[in-house]
Amino acid sequence: MNVVVIGAQWGDEGKGKIVDYLAKEAQIIVRYSGGANAGHTIVIGAEQYALHLIPSGILYPDKIVVLGAGMVIDPKALFSELEMLKSRGIDTTGRVFISDRAHIVLPRYIEIDKERDRARKKPIGTTGRGIGITYSMKAERDSIRIADLGWKEKIDELEETDRQFLAEYQDRLQAMAIDLTSFLAGHKNAQILFEGAQGTLLDLDLGTYPYVSSGMSCAAGAAIGGCIGPRNLDKILGVFKAYSTRVGNGPFPSEFDPEGEGELERFVRETGREYGVTTGRPRRCGYLDLVALRYACRTNSIDSLVMTHLDVYDTMEEIKACVAYRIGDRVVEDFPASIEDLNKAEPILRSFPGWKQSLKNARTYQDLPENARNYIEFIERYCETPVGIVSVGYDRSETIIRTSPWTK
């Protein structure tokens, strides 16, 4: 069975924890897009692990993880991450593979990335990891893939500094390379988890272009970046937070007003630890945007939603969610493509009574207070999509499974 986990907002929804949790019942975890610009924090008891390239399931000793064809891989970052895991007692030997169709991030791409964003009249807010440049080179057919490392003619076309850089990693990368299509065809009876990076609203085609990432963050990307046919994807899960966050520049209709809602913004950011795993940047915070979330459900055929960070609201008397936008004299209930419209959009909010108690020890849906369940059930009705999993904390154990994605 093949299950896809994507972000249903602007990334940073807690996918890492959810993939880590679901990986317990999987045999193979494939990350299908993005690069070292992504970040997942996994909490197991008193231990925390920050991952950027390696799929979250690596922390289980018996799981195989694969960096898929849709990824762009910085070898230096990859082997640094593997060394970090080794130093913390995680044996990754023989368990980490790379699709031979994945592209490689070269050091000069990182410098170009930073310079290009600085030169923009309106910077996008890139992480400066060379991701966008690598995807650009890929589209221009001037990039280099894992499969090309043994192709002397191609290597000779590169600049001397590129060749020197690759020489340090070439043997190790080639030893990890696999034909992912053939590999998955040989594991037809396995439970396979496909892990996305960033979120739907940062997808190159579906997101708030040009304030997006350069890869495919949508569920359709799992078929392409995972080297598997779309009809072989059995379930699609969309992860979202009980509120919204965004990193970098770009429209954010439900963002808290720093003048009138600055204290609420600070509370959500600090309680939810809303700082980038990769960059450490404080995330912009706002109300849950249900207009955007419903759009994510529709464009990704999401079978089931996964709600995280519900516990951030434990102490609040009242919580609010955005149910429509006011753009000029129009009330808009569908997510627009126009950045101008999104920049002008004012959130129309609906209020919900808080529950004023800790959710930390809830382990079944009925353990949740009635007001928390009411909030979840309103989201389900609005998005016309069930919420199958609810996370009430960072630890693996702080997870409520209403519907297992591993059941057909």
Overall description:
The chain is an alpha/beta fold. The protein contains twelve helices and 20 strands. It has helices spanning 15-22, 75-87, 107-119, 131-139, 152-157, 160-176, 180-185, 220-225, 262-271, 290-300, 339-344, 370-383; strands at 2-7, 28-31, 40-44, 47-51, 64-67, 72-73, 96-99, 103-104, 177-178, 192-195, 235-241, 244-246, 284-286, 288-289, 304-308, 318-327, 330-332, 346-353, 387-391, 399-401. The strands form five sheets. The chain has a ten-stranded mixed sheet with strand order 9-7-5-2-10-1-11-15-19-20, with helices on both faces. α3 packs across α4 (131-139). The chain is globular. It starts with a strand and ends in a 7-residue tail after the last strand.
Let me know the largest β-sheet. Answer: 10 strands, mixed
Q: How does the overall form come out from the CA principal axes?
A: globular
Average pLDDT taken over every residue: 93
Low-confidence stretches: none
Which strand-content bin applies to the residues? 15-25%
Structural class designation = alpha/beta
Distance between the termini: 8 Å
What is the topology, as strand order, of the major beta sheet? 9-7-5-2-10-1-11-15-19-20
Number of strand elements: 20
